[in-house]
TrEMBL record:
The keyword Ribonucleoprotein does not apply. GO terms for molecular function: flavin adenine dinucleotide binding; flavin-dependent sulfhydryl oxidase activity. This is Sulfhydryl oxidase. GO terms for cellular component: mitochondrial intermembrane space. Residues 1-20 are annotated as: Disordered. It comes from the Eukaryota. Keywords: Disulfide bond, FAD, Flavoprotein, Mitochondrion, Oxidoreductase. It comes from Daedalea quercina L-15889. Its EC number is 1.8.3.2. It catalyses: 2 R'C(R)SH + O2 = R'C(R)S-S(R)CR' + H2O2. Residues 1-11 have a biased composition (Polar residues). It is found in: Mitochondrion intermembrane space. Residues 82-184 form the ERV/ALR sulfhydryl oxidase domain. Its cofactor is FAD.
Length: 194
């Protein structure tokens, strides 16, 4: 699969950060929403007739006592009925995967191991963000999934997530079972999530 192209400021026809898909066209599910349209492009409402104010802009205006009359849409925030961008899809997928790993059995049956392997090996084939899928494919080939039990699986998944974090310039997560369980199963010891 060809590497995606992220446009730069040199390309006047595409907003910076727009990612092109394998077909050379702008790839919506590969791109963060804030990079999908130039900031000064008004977004349209659900009926396609007029620009819709973003949630943050609406809430800010209401907090300021101005009701919902907002003149300028918030270019980074979309209404909840909009399709996901690469970041929303990523957060939802990581939530599903880490939570599933956290609740995976300590001693899985052969059938559970086989199903987990199928799930993980399906991701590079089916994940809609093509360049994410391509990187994941390479990553899984180099680091085969450890489905022997929930501690090993949680660590393996945490490390794969960290590989993406590093590639995106984000901080790495502590992959000890204490920290992954705290984040995805038990919540912090201060009880703030109980
Ligand atoms: C398989 C896959 C591949 C992806 N590839 C790309 C890509 O190539 N390019 C791209 O732009 N985006 C990619 N994404 C999306 C990207 O990883 C993020 O989901 C997205 O940028 C949103 O990031 P975020 O900072 O909100 O937190 P996320 O990275 O989505 O993390 C969600 C939460 O998980 C926790 N967390 C963070 N790291 C770890 C870890 N290592 N282990 C356990 N928990 C952790 C944190 O509490 C964090 O708030 C990919 C997503 C997936 C699922």
């Amino acid at each position: 699969m060809p590497e995606p192209t992220s446009s730069t400021g040199d390309n006047k026809s595409l907003p910076p950060g727009m990612v092109l898909g394998p077909d050379g066209k702008p790839c919506k599910i590969c791109t963060a929403f804030r990079n999908w349209k130039p900031a000064d492009t008004p977004k349209r409402g659900q009926d396609g007739s007029k620009p819709a104010p973003g949630i943050a802009a609406t809430m800010a205006a209401m907090a300021a006592g101005g009701g919902a009359a907002v003149s300028q849409p918030d270019s980074d925030v979309r209404p909840e009925y909009c399709p996901p961008d690469v970041e929303q899809l990523g957060r939802a997928t990581w939530t599903f995967l880490h939570t599933t790993a956290a609740y995976y059995p300590e001693k899985p049956t052969q059938n559970q191991r086989a199903n987990m392997l199928t799930l993980l090996r399906s991701l590079p084939v089916l994940y809609p963000c093509s360049h994410c899928a391509s990187h994941l494919d390479t990553n899984i080939r180099e680091n085969p999934p450890d489905v022997s039990g929930r501690i090993a699986l949680s660590r393996w998944l945490c490390e794969r997530h960290n590989d993406v974090n590093v590639r995106l310039g984000k901080p790495e997560f502590d992959c000890s079972i204490k920290k992954t369980d705290e984040r995805w199963k038990d919540g912090p010891s201060d009880g703030s999530c109980d």
